[in-house]
Write a structure and sequence with these properties.
By secondary structure, the protein is α+β, with helices and mostly antiparallel strands. The chain has 2 domains: 125 residues, Jelly Rolls (Sandwich); 64 residues, Arc Repressor Mutant, subunit A, CATH 1.10.10. The chain has 8 helices and 11 strands. The strands form 3 sheets. Strands 1, 3, 4, 7 and 9 form a 5-stranded antiparallel β-sheet that branches. Strands 2-8-5-6 form a 4-stranded antiparallel β-sheet. Strand 10 and strand 11 form a beta hairpin. The longest helix has 22 residues.
Length: 206
């Protein structure tokens, strides 16, 4: 059983402590997209409050969502492919820092190892995600994301639709997802409220 990579909390905390005073605090309304750069300059974003998602531009697949303090923009600072887009899922608070100011502070405080840890974490999260869905049968893929959704806070499950949650992250058809979750509910492996909210997972089959 391959487990998800461990979040580099200490590295993230050190970077935020140093970089936060250099940035401009911005608030992003729910469902609003966030540009990777401002005024033609790459920026580092410190995610401080709310819930933020990152999706691929090519197909809209949601590749990650965060609700804990985090940092984005290091990869784009060096290689601006702009292949992903960020979107606020709830009201979000971030600090935006020009990449030159961020680089100087990282150099001054000797934080390049912490940057490397964050980048390695992002890479491993993508690899872990791909292992869950690439060349896998539909049933275990859906079950994986049901387990993931079930671990989220109750207030999140109350506003997140089960079908949308799975489809945004996998690209599977609505009908195939609905067939599986309906069957699981009938067999009492899961339960959810009208409209597909408030998921409860009891004991999903392997």
């Amino acid at each position: 059983m391959i487990t998800a990579p461990e979040r580099p909390t200490a590295a993230i905390d050190r970077l935020i402590t140093v970089l936060k005073p250099l940035g401009k605090i911005i608030e992003i309304a729910p469902k609003k997209r966030l540009a990777w750069d401002a005024g033609g300059e790459p920026h580092i974003y410190l995610f401080l409050e709310g819930e933020l998602s990152v999706s691929r531009i090519t197909d809209g697949i949601l590749v990650a969502s965060v609700s804990e303090p985090h940092l984005f923009g290091f990869s784009e600072m060096f290689y601006p492919l702009r292949g992903n887009k960020m979107r606020a899922e709830t009201q979000c608070v971030l600090s935006r820092i020009n990449h030159r100011d961020a680089e100087l502070a990282i150099e001054q405080y000797g934080l390049w190892r912490d940057v490397a840890e964050v980048l390695a974490y992002h890479t491993n999260i993508m690899l872990y995600r791909d292992l869950q869905i690439v060349n896998q049968r539909t049933f275990p893929v859906v079950c994986h994301y049901l387990r993931e959704l079930d671990k989220l806070p109750e207030e999140t499950k109350a506003r997140v639709n089960i079908l949308s949650y799975v489809q945004e992250r996998t690209g599977l058809s609505r009908s195939s997802i609905l067939n599986i979750i309906s069957s699981l509910k009938t067999d009492k492996f899961i339960n959810f409220a009208r409209g597909g909210y408030n998921l409860e997972v009891f004991d999903l089959p392997d």
